[in-house]
């Protein structure tokens, strides 16, 4: 290994030995040229499509955000309309319930009045029938009372009370 190091040192000294590492040599310019070419290629063919995709993505995000805001506004408006419609429906339902209650009370009162009238008619009719039956029974009993009392008197007295004599 010592020979290899000596050979390298000898080769460097033979080249003039005045190599300054601060001054660029040909390799530097070649690498710089390749770098600039690669940079140009990337700038011309790689950056524009990537920039285009990024711009499209950014536009799509902005559109999505705008759509979200718009849909949120529409949802809020729809909820407000819904609440308003529900309030109106509740009011109408309450009015319909009140009207139905009033109508039911009116119908009940009418039916009660009709039933009261029918009861009064039935009572009057029953009263008349009872009165007629009572009169008929009274006249029948009055006619049969005379014959029964005469019969009873005849049995008790042992005399025929109809004829007024002894039997």
From TrEMBL:
Its main location: membrane. The chain crosses the membrane at residues 28-47. It is a single-pass membrane protein. GO terms for molecular function: proton-transporting ATP synthase activity, rotational mechanism; proton-transporting ATPase activity, rotational mechanism. It is found in: Cell membrane. SUPFAM superfamilies: F1F0 ATP synthase subunit B, membrane domain. It comes from the Bacteria. Keywords: ATP synthesis, Cell membrane, CF(0), Hydrogen ion transport, Ion transport, Membrane, Transmembrane, Transmembrane helix, Transport. Residues 108-142 are annotated as: Disordered. GO terms for cellular component: plasma membrane; proton-transporting ATP synthase complex. Residues 128-142 have a biased composition (Polar residues). Component of the F(0) channel, it forms part of the peripheral stalk, linking F(1) to F(0). Belongs to the ATPase B chain family. NCBIfam families: PRK05759.1-3. F-type ATPases have 2 components, F(1) - the catalytic core - and F(0) - the membrane proton channel. F(1) has five subunits: alpha(3), beta(3), gamma(1), delta(1), epsilon(1). F(0) has three main subunits: a(1), b(2) and c(10-14). The alpha and beta chains form an alternating ring which encloses part of the gamma chain. F(1) is attached to F(0) by a central stalk formed by the gamma and epsilon chains, while a peripheral stalk is formed by the delta and b chains. This is ATP synthase subunit b. It comes from Mycolicibacterium sediminis.
């Amino acid at each position: 290994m010592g020979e290899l190091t000596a050979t390298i040192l000898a080769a460097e000294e033979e080249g003039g030995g005045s190599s300054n590492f601060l001054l660029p040599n040909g390799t530097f310019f070649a690498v710089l040229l390749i770098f600039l070419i690669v940079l140009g290629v990337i700038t011309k063919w790689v950056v524009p499509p990537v920039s285009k995709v990024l711009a499209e993505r950014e536009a799509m995000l902005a559109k999505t955000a705008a759509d979200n805001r718009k849909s949120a506004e529409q949802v809020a408006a729809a909820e407000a309309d819904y609440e308003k419609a529900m309030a109106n429906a509740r009011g109408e339902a309450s009015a319909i319930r009140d009207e139905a209650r009033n109508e039911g009370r009116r119908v009940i009162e009418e039916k009660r009045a009709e039933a009261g009238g029918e009861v009064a008619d039935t009572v009057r009719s029953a009263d008349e029938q009872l009165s007629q039956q009572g009169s008929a029974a009274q006249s029948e009993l009055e006619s049969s009372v005379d014959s029964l009392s005469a019969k009873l008197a005849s049995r008790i007295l042992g005399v025929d009370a109809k004829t007024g004599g002894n039997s």
